[in-house]
Amino acid sequence: MSNSNQPNVLAIIPARGGSKGVGLKNLRKVGGISLLARAIKSAKSATTVSEVVVSTDHEQIRAEALAHGATVVDRPAEIAGDTASSEAVLLHVLAGRESTPDVTLFIQCTSPFINPQDLDAAVTRVASGAADVTFAAVADHGFLWATDEQDAALAIGHDAAHRPRRQDRAPQFRETGAFYAMRTAGLLQNRHRFFGTVQIHQVPTEHGIDIDTEADLALANHDFTATDQLIDVDAVVTDFDGVHTPDTAYLDEYGNESVRVSRSDGMGVERLRAAGIKFLILSKERNKVVSARAAKLNVEVAQGIESKADYLGRWMADESVNPARVAYLGNDINDVPAMELVGWPITVADARPEAHRAARHRLTRAGGTGAVRELAELVLAARNK
User: Which is it for strands 300-302 and 278-282: parallel, antiparallel or unpaired?
Assistant: First the structure.
C-alpha cells in the first residue's frame, strides 16, 4: 500500500462495443441511464476511489464515458474480441499508468445496481490488508445439480438424501460479476483476479442481476422501480432511533446513553443541505444525544413528539412544503401515521413489517449503516437527472 493514509484506488470499467446477446449493451439504459453511466456514477460516488477509467474500442462508448467524468483508455483490437479475458483489459490499463495504484477495482457495466458503499467496503477490506481480493456475491440457498454424459442428475455440494430446511442450511454464494477489489501488486504478479486471501462481499439479492440478454434488461428496468428510484422531493424528514442509529443504545453505570451513527449519513445530510433541501429529525424520545447529533449535522430537530403526524402536518404548513414532495424515513409502527401524510414514505431495510407495508420505497441499508446517505443519494440523483 502507499505511504499516505488514503490508498490510491483505480476503478477500471471495461466496455467494448461488441456484444452478441444485446447490441451495444453498455449503452443500453436502465431507469433512463445507460449501463456505462450507472457504473461510472457508482464508482465516482465511492469515497475510496481515486480515479475511474473506462477501457473501450467504441467511439459512442468513449463519448458516454467522457460525458460522465471518466478517463478513457483506447483498447487495442487484440483484446477487444469475444475471446479476450477481463484480466487482459485490466493489465493493459495498468501497463499504461505512470504509477501503480494500491488497489484495482474492476467494475462491470452489466450489473446495473451497484451501491457505492459496497465498493467502499470491498476496497477497505483489501486496503487494510484483511484480504488480497474481495468480490461481490449473493447468498444462494438452492440445491445445485448437474448432469453426467448420460443426462443423469448429479447433486452438487449436497446430499440428495438429506433435505434440510432453508434456514438450517449454510448458504452458498453466487458470484455476481459486479465488482472485484484486488491488491494491484498481486494482480500484476498472478495476472488473474483471484489470488492470495479471497473474501466474499455479500450484496443484496436484488443487486445480483447481470445483463446478458434482452430479457435481463427488461427485468432490470422492471426492478428499477423497486430498487433504485430517483426520489424528487423538497424536504426530507427522518426518525432518529433505528434510522440514524442501529436502534440500540450504549448505557454506562451512571445511566448515560450514547449511540453509534454513520459518518456517511452525515455527509449525505450535508449534501442535501447544500442542495437547498429542507431536513428535519423528528423523534419521540427526548435525549441529549439526539440534540448533539442534530447540532453536528446543523439541522432542525423536534423531540418528545407523541404524535409525529400532527407535528409533521404543522411543520409542512409552516414551511410551505407540498406534502407530495416530502420524504419521510422511518422504521417502526409509530412512524406510519406520519408516513401516510407524505408523497414519499420510505423505510430502512430492517424496519418493522408494519412500516414496510406503508412505504413507497424500501432502502437497501439498515438503520445506522448508511440508510440516510442512501436516501440522500437518491434525492440528489433526482435533482441532477
Answer: parallel
CA distance 196 to 188: 13
Q: Are strands 235-238 and 326-330 parallel, antiparallel or unpaired?
A: parallel
State the span(s) of the chain assigned CATH 3.90.550.10. Answer: 9-225
Q: How many angstroms separate the CA atoms of 41 and 49, rounded?
A: 11
Contact 383, 271 (CB under 8 A): no
d(CA 378, CA 359) in angstroms, rounded, equals 15
3-state helix, strand, coil in the chain (%, to 5): 35, 20, 40
- Within 10 angstroms of residue 160's Cβ, the number of other Cβ atoms is 11
CA distance 245 to 233: 23
CA dist 240 and 245 (Å) reads 7
In angstroms and rounded to an integer, the radius of gyration of the C-alpha atoms of the chain is 23
Q: How many Cβ atoms from other residues are within 10 Å of residue 272's Cβ? A: 25
| Assigned CATH topology for domain 9-225 | Spore Coat Polysaccharide Biosynthesis Protein SpsA; Chain A (3.90.550)
**Hunting for cell 427488461 — which residue is that?**
218
Assigned C-alpha cell, 289: 444525544
**Domain 235-384 classification at class level:** alpha beta
The answer to which of 209-223, 337-351, 369-383 has the lowest mean pLDDT is: 209-223
**How far is residue 9 from each of residues 14, 49, 75, 107, 368, measured CA to CA in Å?**
16, 5, 21, 12, 26
Would you say 238 and 293 are in contact if contact means Cβ atoms under 8 Å apart? Answer: no
Residue by residue, what is the 3-state secondary structure of 209-275? CCCCCHHHHHHHHHHHHHHCCCCCCCEEEECCCCCCCCCCCEECCCCCEECCCCHHHHHHHHHHHHC
Distance of alpha carbon 325 from the chain centroid: 24
Could you tell me where in the chain the CATH 3.40.50.1000 domains are found? 235-384
322-366 pLDDT per residue, tens: 998 999 999 999 999 999 899 889 999 999 988 888 888 888 899
Q: Give the residue among 382, 358, 347 at the shortest CA–CA distance from 277.
A: 382
Give the pLDDT confidence score for residue 140 in this predicted structure.
Answer: 85
